[in-house]
Amino acid sequence: MNDKQQIEICVQIYIDSMEQSDPNLVEQAFHPNGSVVGYLHGELMEMSVNDFAEFVASQQPSPRESGGGVYFQTLSCEVEGTTALVKVRDTYLGITFLDTLSLIKTNDKWRIYNKLFHVESE
């Protein structure tokens, strides 16, 4: 499996984590030192991976259970050695986000190191 395919799997795990409200999947997709940063409702949000995992887990029933799911589209994917940049548009909890995901390859595994999000519509 090439790097791009591995990155696509990592992004899918990230989307699945939100769709299933599964904190374990968040931890699989993100590097332990990762972060989630952006403005939501006009306020700066800065979260650790643990904070984000707890937030995802708190969404009950999960989007999948409530029939909403998580819509997403990968807009771009650039790989440079052991780093990658992926732009994803996703609709989660009724909000459309543009996520800029920075990934790093460590121990032959791709993981999200930083999620920088922009709210396109609420």
Describe the model.
With 122 residues, the protein is α+β, with helices and mostly antiparallel strands. The protein has a single domain, classed as Nuclear Transport Factor 2, Chain: A, CATH 3.10.450. Helix content is 29%, strand content 51%. The chain is built from 3 helices and 6 strands; from the N terminus they run H-H-E-E-H-E-E-E-E. The chain has helices spanning 3-20, 23-29, 49-58; strands at residues 30-40, 43-48, 71-80, 83-92, 95-106, 109-121. A 6-stranded mixed beta sheet has the order 2-1-6-5-4-3. Helix 1 (3-20) packs antiparallel against helix 2 (23-29) and helix 2 runs antiparallel to helix 3. The model has no long low-confidence stretch (mean pLDDT 96).
